[in-house]
Amino acid sequence: MSMKIKGIAASDGIGIAKAYLLVDPDLSFKKTTITDVDAEIARLHEALNASIDDLKTIQQNAKGSLDDDTLAIFDAHITILSDPEMIKQINEQITSKKENAEQALTKVTTDFANTLAAMKDNKYMQERATDVKDVSKRVLSHLLGKKLPDLAAVDTPVIIVAHEVTPSDTSQMNKKYVKGMITDLGGRTSHSAIMSRTLEIPAVVGTAEATQKIKNGETLILDGLNGEAISNPSEAEIKDYEKQAQDFEKQREEWAKLVDAPSVSADGKEFEIASNIGTPADMDDVQKAGSDAVGLFRTEFLYMDSTSLPTEDDQFNAYKKVVETMNGKPVVIRTMDIGGDKPLNYLPLPEEMNPFLGYRAIRISLDRQEIFRTQLRALIRASKFGQLRIMFPMIATLDEFRKAKAIFMEEKEKLQADDPGLGNDIKLGIMIEIPAAAIFAEAFAKEVDFFSIGTNDLIQYSFAADRGNESVSYLYQPYNPALLKLIKHVIDSAHKEGKIAAMCGEMAGDEIALPLLMGMGLDEYSMSSSSVLRTRSSMKSLDTKKCAKLVANVLKDSLTNEDTKKMVKKFLK
Length: 573
What we know:
By secondary structure, this protein is of the alpha/beta class. It has 23 helices and 16 strands. 49% of the residues lie in helices and 14% in strands. The mean pLDDT is 91.
């Protein structure tokens, strides 16, 4: 019998495929005393060999979608599983202590991992501790006869069902096979929601119960338009949703006709509709969407997809590729925004009560300047190949911007010794995501070249509501007049100084928000590439003078998020 699961619509589209539960099985076991040592050792070696075969298969399947550095991780894991010293110690544990293979494996690999983790002066060996734990889990799963989920091994159409989807999960997803995702946790601005829009796959998040209610391998309909899923659907339901999916694809085909059209309002006012990207691989989608710019390149994914800090040349090549592909159109590159929900294994950060309000983004860059300077040099070098702009994230005070700018100027001067004029065309901007910076926008506007409003964080900080916590998801209120006044103040402050005001938070691609932002005069709207053509189509039908009147009425009469929503919907009718 079919069952509905409701959540938050996070990415448009409809997917129909088998459910793939991205949930680790229970790997608990009992320590037992064994009598047949040879049989137990044979069982261990069988599990070791099966694990090596797994890794070889996953590596082979991932060759088309992962870079060489990421693929090399599988080689490292195979090497660990073949380590004669480790195998010898596990064998001895079974022989001398008469322990079952599960206990012997866990004891020896835990000791190995702890020894590696304790090597404070050898970062490479410390990183291997995580690898040892990973491979141990795989061998244990074979010993217990339980299958581990392996995204990189997926080779048939599936819908991912997960508690939450991490950045490392999405880096393994093959868009060819992943037809959608549904999660227990998250809101419209959680990582899984943003990545689903980047991958252009439907998504429903914040269901609280998807992993409990959906069984692995059962047929699942995922409705990313209305925020619900149907498990075990009837034939009639499948037919109905296949028709809806076809209708949505027809709508997409209509939008596709606007790929080379200008982003212009009904009364002829020109705007920029840009794409948010995570890696150079996203540029195919940017070009398919006919984006006017890259409004946000989240460079932290260069750091997250690597096992060590990316070198200056690694970064330079990535930035150069994006800038060259845009062929003279603007590219806004955000400096490393690590911390919060984006930790790095190889860059240990302090344990914090609230990492979103802690040591992250520009705060790390200003503190660990060698990392920041490497990134700035790569960016300055890449500026030679197109219109590159640099944006600093999480700026709270003028002092932070001035310090970041001073470091940029120092690195630029050093590079200009060999290449006069290099980097002179780079514009420096800040993300407005901290309320203090938004309130003080008129002062910042005198010193920066542009603003980009990061509404994902600006909303969570303005309403003191963690954007990944579904218990307070009702406080994600992009149309609340208090927030709209803050946004309008930022846009007005930029325009007063002749500067550009952009938005790169998810609100920029929101259909209800669009007439409000156009009425406020926002210059650039940066969003997931999948939303660009839909937004361009909507923009064509909106008159900015009428939108400005709508804003005036909203700020005069609206008291709540819902009030504004109703007023905009009435206006759009």
